[in-house]
Fold this protein.
Amino acid sequence: MKDKIKVIITNDQNVIKLPTGVRMLIRRCCNAVLVTEQFKGSAEISVTIVDDEQIHALNKQHRNIDRSTDVLSFPLGVDGVYDINNDTGAQMLGDIVISIEHAVKQSDLYGHSLDREIAFLTVHSMLHLLGYDHEPGGLELVRMREKEEAVLTQLGLVRSGSYYTMEE
């Protein structure tokens, strides 16, 4: 049986209308990261689009940071071992939560398309679900940025400006 990638996308906000094609873009990003990282087996990822108020509440609840942010990752695996969906046999990688309001602001700030920003946030978060972490900075941060750009370039979403300043 061929490995399957299931990306469950939920739009839990009504502040900003999602552009046409965003759901397909998110699926393409998730798939591209898994292919690039040579992930083996079937996988499930949940992606939820929220507004700034919702992501603020999640950031405060889960990270004790009292402000909104652009994206949150909730990995379900540890050291490459994931929970298995008993119905499908797929490895459940975790949840990605994207603030569409933050994505719009950042696409304006960095001077690129909303698609490019949503793709960046999705790829960034997928790498977190696979165990990458930029928090320590240094080499880990550089390695993660290189992987993000490689995937985005592969998807035809080449970076046009300077590196991002991640709001942590």
About this structure: The first helix runs from residue 22 to 36. The chain has one domain: 5-154.
